[in-house]
Amino acid sequence: MCGIFGYVGKKVNIERVLIDGLKTLEYRGYDSAGIAFVTDKVEILKTTGKISALENMIDEDLLSNIGIAHTRWATHGNATTINAHPHRSGSVTIIHNGIIENYLELKEMLIKEGYSFVSETDTEIVAALLDYLKSKDIWSNLEVIKEMSSYIKGSYALGIIFDDELDTLYATRKDSPLIIGVGEEENLIASDVAAIINFTKNYFLLNNYDIVKITNNGVDIYNENLEPIRKNINTVYWNVEEAEKNGFPHFMLKEIYEEGKVLKDTINEYVESIDSFINKMPDFSKYDNIHIVACGSAMHAGLIGKHLIENYAGIKVDVEIASEYRYKKEFYNDKTLVILISQSGETADTIASLRKANEDGIDTLGIVNVVGSTIARESKNVLYIRAGVEIAVATTKAYLLQVAMLELINLKLMLERNLITGERLQELLQSLSTVPKLIDEVIAKDKNYIDIAKYIYEDKDLFYIGRGIDYAISLEGSLKLKEISYMHSEAYQAGELKHGTISLIEEGTPVIAIMTDPELSLKTISNIKEVVARGAKVILITTNELDGDYDFIDQKVVLPKVDNYLVPLLTVVPLQLIAYHVADLRKCDIDKPRNLAKSVTVE
Ligand code: G6P
Asked: From ligand 1's centre to the CA of 537, what distance in Å?
């Protein structure tokens, strides 16, 4: 989704600074980009397509130390240069992330006041609104921004430069992410920390309606009543190198290769000892039902959690897509726990679902990667996963850690319900601690996945089948493939395929069958034979326990032995790597797939 970056400080080659800032936001997904900077007036450069196109337009020798920059992911209006940000009206230049819901109403009002508009965006309306409020000539720029917020319905993170205060960058937010980076003789605004770490590791977060004023002299912060306030400074806990490819051809591959390490970091944080595990996990004893609410891969992680928690801890779990949940009649009660899963902590629909549960007085728990994000801040309780920065749009390591966190929650639930003894818990945690190494072993068989990718990458459609928890994993495998390789695929419950979809299986159709559950394996084998009989070429993903001499299989991945409840942490890895290699063979833009955004901050 749209990325915001702004700079005021000691560096004087502002166009280069802004372009470099935008490059660090590229991973969020965008289709046009632009910058505005101050010389003796505000200058704007913008274009569609990649940031490299914008880079070709800059003058490296130009001297200025204040500017704003934006990557746009089109919502209101097509991806054109005119619709790209920054937008300017009268004496005001802005960049914006979010959606102004009442923009048509505001547009009508502003047209009556003599304003005209060149773009189709809601953002240009905000620029005009600010200019209109300024023209009243009774307010300072701070007051103008405060007044603006009372006109707008919707969400926004804004960077603003007023012509009458060219040495000052203003920023404000409501329901869209925005952080303020605090460096030495340089300060920044950005959509997320990835954009500031080349300058500083220190940053603070803004509450809704806070306004910041950044000049060469520093940062002043005001609350919604324009009272000066102070903020706690946070520190980014990962390094600049983590946001670099370090020799890997793509961030996605690098992030898959990091899975063992980040799992280890997360386990170390929560499972130093049995006592620390018990203390760090919330007390779940009052709940008798759970809703897991999320989008995309995070929702798929929730489905793994449902299988684990229902089967091992015996508690009913409903998994809901956040964009549906937020508008749904809810059946929660005072014994319901609503778990929100989100890598970014900024997904608009997940935030809305969280707020709905909070307003209804239902307990909420966020499973989040980005520290201090909206979901982390607004959930009653938060459990952080430690994935570090994830740059590739298609999530891999964060998904894995979301599953791991649900594994830990499941263990805590089992302990609270006396379904396992402390001794058994110790054993299970011990076997969890072996998984990072096993993940490295699975990754080391990359040639196996390249061979499979070569075997299927020219096909048009692909089916994933599995039963129970393997079906939940199939959904993630299928999503990964679609996202990055643009190959059509569907995931099916292995026993359900014959109720219609099997009509699509023909000679040579690839089917990836996942079979890791010993109790269901014979059933899955029957389902595999059904597709083989119709000409499918089958790739089997199974465990060494269930491995056999299956002559009806074309390719195979065998996972190392691990406790049954931990298998999903291994199964997903080959699926991610197969999707990656297929996308690579199809020459796709793996880290930035078309039309997708890393963090979906609009409805
Ligand atoms: C986007 C991303 C997906 C992600 C989903 C939820 O669609 O492309 O990879 O799973 O959002 O994101 P979240 O940050 O809430 O986990």
From this structure: 31
